Amino acid sequence: MPEPSPLPCHVIAGPLGVGKTTAILDYLRRHTGEQEVGVVVNDFGPVGLDGAILEGEGGRPEVATVPGGCVCCAAAEGLVTTIQRMLELPDLDRLIIEPSGMADPAQVLVLLRQMAGQSRLELRPTIALLNAAEFEPRRASQMPFFRHMADAADILVLNRCDAAEPGTEEAFREWAATLEPPKLRVVTTEHGHLDEELFALRLPEPAAEACHPHGHTHALGDTANDPSGGATWPAARCFHHDRLTAVLEGLAREGMEGVRVERLKGVFRTERGWWVLQIANGEVTRRETPARKDSRADWVATEGRPETVRDLLESALRPE
């Protein structure tokens, strides 16, 4: 029996709200009918919202979710098991892994290198996205979390350049040029678009690497004081569209009932159909989406009790 062909594996990392899921959706839509792509998503919340978004669009890819924990620590075992299941799919052409925005990608890569040495997994250059609307060279250099992202990346991408201040792209390239080791590519883009060439790149011959102990700091909170939450609702329950949007805008901007939300992703059934609603960078975005098996949301609260977010969302439910 011939040996199975190598399975290219791409890690697409970045902070919460930077556009990782958008980038993956863009790739999937460009390759509908051409490639069988598997996606492993480590959602920041407990209900697996990013996985639900990907399952509903982009040519029905093979999607697996590792929710409710960081894949570099609490959910590491779940990541390994999920990838092993993906490796058993004979027709899979490519595997994309999206760690949570709170994960240290370097620790994820340690796991993947171990698996690559024992399976047909072929680790490709790691892609890390940063947000142009938030980028500032001194902040990026001084904050350990952003340095972890940059240090782990082989390909460094500044996303959302359409929202950047003048001079941001040049400052990003100058900053990236100071990083060691040098990056394979330094890219600026909009709407998460990643060129085909980035997925064709291969890693250089590996050098001897030290295995560092796991000492990263999550970007938001820790497991003892978890700022994230999540909820699901049966598809039979319907949200009032305008009321739901008003709740999200209140949470994103001024806060409501002592709670302020930095990041929220949700798929909701409203009287106007099914919608993906998100909070990122203090703004609410919305777009229509195909029907799903249920409504669901994940969120990260920067102030107040995360449990209050569910009560506020449910205040927008229409009477049964």
Quick structural summary:
InterPro entries: CobW/HypB/UreG_nucleotide-bd, P-loop_NTPase, Zinc-reg_GTPase_activator. The chain is built from 10 helices and 13 strands.
Just give the CATH class of the largest domain: Alpha Beta
What order do the helices and strands follow?
Answer: EHEHEHEHEEHHEHEHEHEEEEH
Structural class by helix and strand composition: alpha/beta
Helix residue percentage: 25-40%
Number of alpha- plus pi-helical segments: 10
Q: Predict the CATH topology of the largest domain.
A: Rossmann fold
Strands, count: 13
Domain module tally: 2
Beta content: 25-35%
Overall geometry? globular
Query: What is the CATH superfamily classification of the largest domain?
Result: P-loop containing nucleotide triphosphate hydrolases
Rg over CA atoms, rounded to whole Å, is 19 Å
Distance between the termini: 58 Å
What does this structure look like?
The protein has 320 residues and is an alpha/beta fold. The protein folds into 2 domains: 7-200, Rossmann fold (3-Layer(aba) Sandwich); 223-314, 2-Layer Sandwich (Hypothetical Protein Yjia, Chain: A,domain 2), CATH 3.30.1220. The protein has 10 helices and 13 strands. The strands form 2 sheets. Strands 1, 2, 3, 4, 5, 6, 7 and 8 form an 8-stranded parallel sheet that branches. Strands 9-13-10-11-12 form a 5-stranded antiparallel sheet, with helices on both faces. The longest helix has 12 residues, at 76-87.
